[in-house]
Amino acid sequence: MPHFRLRRAVVALVTLPLLALGTGLATAAPAPHSTVGQAPAATRVSVIEDEVARTLATALTDPALRERLRAVADPVALAPLAAAVPGPAARGLAEATARADRGIATAKGLGADLGPLLRVQLADPSMRTALAAGAAPLVATAATDEHARTVRAYDTAGRSHALDTGTLPTRPVYLVDLDTAKTLEAGVAVLQREFGARGLAAAQAAGGWWVTKITSVRVNDDEEPWFKGAAEMFALVTGFGQDGKVRVDSVAMPYLQYDGTTYYPNQILVNWSSYKYNLADVVLMEDDGDTNYLALAQAVAAVLLTIADQGAYIPLVNAVLAALPESWWTDDPDYVESWYTLARSSSGRLNGARGNGWMTVEPYYVQQF
Fold first, then answer.
1. What is the dihedral of CA 359, 362, 368, 369, to 10 degrees?
2. Where does the UniProt annotation place the signal sequence (predicted)?
3. Contact, 358 vs 350, CB < 8 A?
């Protein structure tokens, strides 16, 4: 089944696994259920997107807007597109979408000044022929639950239609989704800012330093329905800093978009000069576009700040997973994979603990000029 571009932000939490304190034994991270930091943002973002989809569908009675959208080949920011089309329907759509952009940014903990976030695109290039022949399009958003059997779409009269997620629709469908690359960049900045403000991201050492570099990475293929598409990833690297306090670093991974694809980023994952010990671990998470980055940072920090350096490496992954909102453990498999005991000397292929992915790494020395 082909991949379709759509909002599927994948969150990678690169952290240290939690030691069962007092036992001296590290255990593999289960998928815990936490009530910390409940995430109503998921509902708010989905509702906002659905409202915009309906507004766009009814606005497509305007021939000028319909023709402008038909000429678009790639995902395009919806508010500017609508603002460039004369007429009351397009103007109303532009205003509604601009409000929605601000509401989504706030719901995701990103502030309200990011600019356009909602995009529109054709669900599949094969639908362009039907559009050119005059077929009336539908407008939909992706279901938050990737296992949903139907996804809701609207026609130009505002009527709702249930589309089978297992079959590519024969009728043209426009998809309203988030610019996840933009929200990812802003979200990683929020995480780093919040961790720094809580003393979880002290300055790194001067001079050259050893790092762990990702040479290739892959997440196993899951059957994807037609409404799913490109993902976005970021990493949180955590351990004990040189000051003996828990440290967390955010690393954007925008290239890691699809399951079943091997990527070769040559990306720095861990800067060991920032850490007191030579061990770290990785937890890969999936975000359906509705992650509240501010709430995530606050929840993770609240747990990590309770853990003190005991003079030996203490893994922390279970603590991070326990801090995640309850919504991350329902409907979708937001917890994807874990890698334990990544050392400064680690090299070669590292299979994930769940058997759902792997990465190859190598130590690398960065020389400061």
1. -110
2. 1-28
3. yes
